[in-house]
Please model this.
Amino acid sequence: AQKVTQAQTEISVVEKEDVTLDCVYETRDTTYYLFWYKQPPSGELVFLIRRNSFDEQNEISGRYSWNFQKSTSSFNFTITASQVVDSAVYFCALMGRLAYNTDKLIFGTGTRLQVFP
Amino acid sequence: EPEVTQTPSHQVTQMGQEVILRCVPISNHLYFYWYRQILGQKVEFLVSFYNNEISEKSEIFDDQFSVERPDGSNFTLKIRSTKLEDSAMYFCASSETGDSNQPQHFGDGTRLSIL
Model:
């Protein structure tokens, strides 16, 4: 089965602190894709990043960075110098396509990030 | 930037009534999805749709649910006889292709409240 675990239910930080959101996944697929979505208080789901299982290179986009470690089945997300606008629920998601012949996203339970001024 | 649009943003319905949630996917996208998020919980897959037929559905998607693409632009989710436990946020998503070369783009959701 495919599974995504986000062990951190809620994280609170003060503005300008760095914060890392953990994501651990399980799949028996050899080709899979990992995603992060942001859900602000207004409720919509905003796509942040997609990473395929062959590309373990870390990625940086502004204050956001992602660390993909296949050896530990983790795809962690770091926000540098957090801001109040980063307050949201962040979901990690998995799509294992070949073994499961599916294109559905399997979401984790989300991590609620609160950034205080 | 093109986006997925969902209407209404909030729907309140009496238990047992039928409800139709509407979605307009991004125009050149071919794969369509519905997901559900019960308040405070994770987002769960309901159904995927391609080439005018369901390609996959979850165990949540039972006989009271149906999907349809009635014209070239709309993609609807119908719940035939709503139950209290159907109260949730329903997200429509679309992607250009059915593989992961293109991400699924989500609409803003419809909050369904069953009384």
